[in-house]
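Allow me, if you will, to draw on your knowledge of protein folds for a short while. I have a record of one protein: its chain in single-letter code and its fold written as discrete structure tokens. Could you please explain, in whatever detail you think fit, how the structure tokens follow from the sequence? The record follows directly beneath this note:
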Amino acid sequence: MLQAFRPAFELQTFQTPTIVAPATEPIRRKRGPSLSRRIGQTGNVFQQNQTAWNPAAPAYGRFWIDTTERRKRRTIALGICPTRSRAKRKLREFIEQEGVNEKAFSISINCPATTFQEQAERWIEGLPKRRRRPVKPATIVGWRVALEKWIRPAIGDMPLAEVSNSALKLLIETMAAGGLAPKTIVNYTQVVKMVVASAVNSEGDQIYPRKWNHDFVGVPIVQKEKQPRPTVNEAEVGGILTRTTSRYAPLFALLAGTGLRIGEALALKKTDLAPDCRTLFVRRSMWRGHEQEPKTPAAIRVVDMPEPLAAMLRDYAADKTGYLFPTLKTNRPLAQRNVLRALHDIGVRVGFHAFRRFRAQNLRRARVPEDLTRLWLGHAGRSITDLYAAGLQHDEAWRREWCDRVGLGFALVGPCWAINQVVSDSQ
């Protein structure tokens, strides 16, 4: 009874009001165009002012195309089609012929125009940095010369999407008219193909896939038996060692007696020779005054030398501390161009590879096992059997036996650098 007479304010309980946030719809992102969701379109056909299909009325087809601004509807005339199925078939054939459903067509329309020269610069810059098979600087320089001297003037300003068989044909005709050899034309053609193939999308697929027609573009056929391969013989090697100066005679003797590449020979240090100088170890190469890895993994090798050449190197390298063939002032390795100039100055107009061919001929003439020939010359194996027999390179007695059997293939009388020293000092 008492509770009935309590004040009204005592019967009320005060609670903090709950604020309810107004309901909001989830934010939906607009689903834009995506090439991965496209499965290809077939379009639709229609006739104007017709309620049913009229075999005598003209038919039309509609489909979507990509433009630089947005997707647009395109309408084409199909002519008189007796049935709707016939009209649909004609429209599908037209779409396939135009390549409307191909990803490359859509990408080339929507992507900004890229010239061949622009893509070539990106390709060249990425060659030494790529993770798989980075390209050596000497190879990059050769490709850059091809781009600057021949390819860029002919097709450099063309959009990359238009560099196809017709453009390659124009380039080949230009190079042939310029007097380039067939092998050089083939090599420069490969550069164009690699540049076009280097343009890829985010999925790694080629943006402009090409099916190159060698018969149409006129790629010359290289006949290996007609390729010039200058070499030297025993008498010419002896003449070179007799007429050259003391600075270069040991180097030429080493090239002819071992078949080393010129970059490998210029990068040799005294520490690369065994104590008796009967073997040397190729660990590096020299290019334009900078050390780099040898040409291939197979080029990292051990090379055996006959005793006459080893005796010459023992005397020659006795006072050397760094590189075996240094300059007089800076003690840096000799430059290839200076060595080649010294060879040409005595009337021998060949390259350094002539010595390498001379050594290969001597090894073949002596019937040296092919495994050992490839080891000494730094060539890779050709079969799985060569991989199985790779352990033979550690058999020093077997290698030395064949090395002594082959010999040098030329006469090495006395220390040639000392014999020529009088001539060198008097000049």
Remarks:
- Confidence is low (pLDDT under 50) at residues 1-14, 419-427.
- The first helix runs from residue 8 to 11.
- The longest strand covers residues 71-80.
